[in-house]
Amino acid sequence: xxxxxxxxxxxxxxxxxxxxxxxxxxxxxxxxxxxxxxxxxxxxxxxxxxxxxxxxxxxxxxxxxxxxxxxxxxxxxxxxxxxxxxxxxxxxxxxxxxxxxxxxxxxxxxxxxxxxxxxxxxxxxxxxxxxxxxxxxxxxxxxxxxxxxxxxxxxxxxxxxxxxxxxxxxxxxxxxxxxxxxxxxxxxxxxxxxxxxxxxxxxxxxxxxxxxxxxxxxxxxxxxxxxxxxxxxxxxxxxxxxxxxxxxxxxxxxxxxxxxxxxxxxxxxxxxxxxxxxxxxxxxxxxxxxxxxxxxxxxxxxxxxxxxxxxxxxxxxxxxxxxxxxxx
Length: 328
Known about the structure:
Blueprint: H1 2-6, E1 9-13, H2 19-30, H3 34-44, E2 50-55, E3 58-72, E4 91-100, H4 109-123, E5 128-131, H5 138-146, E6 149-158, E7 171-175, H6 178-189, E8 194-197, H7 199-211, E9 215-221, E10 226-234, E11 237-244, H8 256-274, E12 279-283, H9 285-293, E13 300-309
Parallel strand pairs: 4-5, 11-12
Antiparallel strand pairs: 1-2, 2-3, 3-4, 3-8, 5-13, 6-12, 6-13, 7-9, 9-10, 10-11
Helix pairs in contact: 2-3, 3-7, 6-7, 8-9
């Protein structure tokens, strides 16, 4: 006990001198590929995004509050997306890579650090904070410890391939720039409550995908309709982290049968581009529910991200929205 009291504790924004220790902590806690760690740190290791807790100069806990985007209430009005630069009050800090060294866990250090970081966000006038828990049991922890509420959901389904002859796929797949992908994304999600990402955040996702044999893509159907998706390889698996089919543009008026037809047309094109790989597809919950209605099984719908009010205001909507990309 005396040893614990004697430790000199620092809690606050990271400095340039903390970069090496923070990278080492990340590698020990999350065991991520060093290429990804280097990519992330080159863009987001900054004093206004990373908070650390140090004991006698040794960094033992870190958390990143990333300005990925803003809440969009989905009023059904397509937007012309330019720089997607929001004011700091509109930004929703996304809690990311929150971790403590294994030997220092169970002492409340992480809770102390995140509470301090969220308090600083609140004092800056920011309205919301969002977090994507890595495991199901963490949803109840973040609710009890900090007051987060589950407000974003997602639908997931396994990749499937139907029997086909020699005919070519009727959907073209084309790579997109981050800015172009974001325009398509906003066009398709304009009728839904969702997180509207900055172009910079989508740019990070593009680089992550390209690092692992994927990219951001446009879907062009024979009838002129367009969708988009984000995918990368994980070993022999293919992860479609976001699939937005053209029918989503109709918002609540989308037709389950048409959505199912668009999905069935998409998978042969995916097979031609990436081979017949196992994996999963992630999409908005309402799209998944429509596919279930159309008779597709299995489709799993689950909680995906949580929202915290930093100023005590009521959370928007009782229905759950779409967060989408988790940068996982």
